[in-house]
Amino acid sequence: MEQGKQLTCTLALAVFTAVLGSLQFGYSIGVINAPQKVIEKHYSRSLGVWAGRASAAVSVNSTYEEELSNEGRHPTVVMYWSLSVAIFSIGGMLSSFLVGFIADLRGRVKGMLMINVLAVAAGLLMALCRVWKPHIMVISGRAVMGFYCGLTSGLVPMYIGEIAPKAYRGALGALHQLAIVIGILISQIIGLDIILGNDDMWPLLLGLSGAPAVLQSFLLPLCPESPRYLYIVQGKEQEARKSLIHLKGAYDATPDLEEMRREKEKADREPRISVLSLMCSSVYRQQLLVALMMHISQQFSGINAIFYYSTNIFTRVGVNQPVYTTIGVGVVNTIFTLVSVGLVDKAGRRTLILVGLGGMCCCAVAMTVGIKFQGDYPWMSYVSMSGIFLFVSFFEIGPGPIPWFIVAELFSQGPRPAAIALAGCCNWTSNFFIGMTFQYIQYWLDCYVFVLFAVLLLGFTVFTYFRVPETKGKSFEEIAAVFHKGRKRLAQSPDVTTELEQLKNSTDA
Questions:
Q1: Residue range(s) occupied by CATH 1.20.1250.20 in the chain
Q2: What 3-state DSSP class applies to 428?
Q3: Which CATH code fits 278-498?
Q4: Which of 277, 270, 302 is CA-nearest to residue 422?
Q5: Number of helices and strands (H, E) in the chain?
Q6: Is pLDDT at 486 greater than 50 in this prediction?
């Protein structure tokens, strides 16, 4: 059976359906930013601080009135707006620990179907926010949507990683990130005030966050369940065989089933490990360290500083229409994620991460130099602009898409759900930290803010070079062997034998 024939229509449908959740994730990330001023105005009116302050402003002078038209000036509005943005990450942090439980409860496909109720409910809360108090409705909807996205950001890479043929696992896994950046770009475009980001249509703009879940709910029943879940978790060999044939076409599934059989035997000896047990275990410490560092490097690279505050950054470097330049960043984001999809199974995961992190480090230095000297040399603004676009490009080549699916490659079936839950929580927590602190860091460091990220990126590059193995084209068993190489004698020692016995008796997280 040729590898190329494993890319079937059923596999394409399953991957497309799964990444609709990723599209929704990306849309939810970007949708809140474009209509900020419009939403703040409605918050002010609902809270009763808009009309009174505005009328008071008229009695003073028109300049102050213009300043007050920026609704975020009122402390109460600032508080509710900040909560509207931050609650999304908080919801994701909380739900990321439930990924393994949901995935194993009824399976990957039914798990994604179940959680769509959350997405639809969140969309309705935001779409109908004018029915009651907009600030309460939007915050509630964003919290529920964040909870949903925390689950889908784990379930989607897990499902795709388990159904993808070995030769295409990287490319198909990178589609999760591609769908996220497409979702961000869509939200940026339709969030323009001439489309939906205006005084009349902004509730619909936010409510559309739940639209992909509706389509996904119709398509998920047509998707085969993960063969690895059916065989290794459920012990249903024949159903796993049928699922493999549905996904890959008519072929001899015996080698794949044999690989799953060996993994199942290992999983039976080491049952599904809880989050707490995984954190305390030395057996999986190396894999867990790599997995968590991949997600930390993704968020602490400074990319979200660009995404969250790009309009402000572009204004600072002298761009007259920063909102359209921000959309330009979204386009570049999407194009280079496509490049990553094409390269990841050829160049390899480790190579692309190294190139991406190293390139971002150089771009961070270039942005710092450009911002520092643009007052003295006007052409330096072009250096800053180029640095921003290249920064995003290098991110999407490797550090953006790869951490999402490499966790599923690093762990066998037993610890995989717990590892994905921990990595997801680490990602969401880092995202929240950067989103909340970047404005203060920018205030303290001013034009040197990206020097901090350059230092971090250099550290992440060194770590990747020495500690991250290449997983391209390797089976899950072969990847695990890379980490356990040189530990064969240790694995037979009484201490490790005792630890494995303890892991067997651990409860699910």
A1: 7-48+74-223, 278-498
A2: helix
A3: 1.20.1250.20
A4: 277
A5: 26, 0
A6: no
420 and 426 Cβ atoms separated by less than 8 Å: no
Provide the mean pLDDT of the chain. 82
Q: DSSP code of 237?
A: H
Instruction: For residue range 183-205, list pLDDT tens digits in order.
Output: 999 998 998 888 998 888 999 99
Instruction: Check residue 446 and give left, alpha or beta (phi > 0: left; psi -120 to 50: alpha).
Output: left
b/e 137-173 (16+ beta carbons within 10 angstroms → b): bbbbbbbbbbbbbbbbbbbbbbbbbbbbbbebbbbbb
444, 374 in Cβ contact below 8 A? no
Q: Residue 417's closest CA among 108, 176, 199, 114?
A: 108
Helical packing angle, 322-347 and 303-316, nearest 10°: 150
Contacts of 113 (CB under 8 A, 6+ apart): 216, 217, 220, 221
7-48+74-223 has CATH 3.30.160.20 classification: no
Q: Determine which of 114-118, 140-144, 444-448 has the lowest per-residue pLDDT on average.
A: 444-448
Residue 95, number of CB atoms within 10 A of its CB: 26
Both tokens of 417, joined, read 């759900």
Separation of alpha carbons 108 and 92, rounded Å: 18
Residues 6+ apart with CB under 8 A from 122: 141, 142, 144, 145, 148, 209, 210
The residue among 322 and 258 whose pLDDT is bigger is 258
pLDDT per residue as tens digits for the range 287-324: 899 999 999 999 899 887 776 666 666 776 667 777 77
| The three-state (H, E, C) secondary structure of 325-345, written as one string | HHHHHHHHHHHHHHHHHHHHH
Structure tokens at 491: 């694995």
Q: How far apart are CA 20 and CA 8, in angstroms?
A: 19
* Inter-residue contact 33 to 190 (CB < 8 Å): no
Q: Which letter does DSSP use for residue 278 in this model?
A: H
Q: Which amino acid is at 42?
A: H
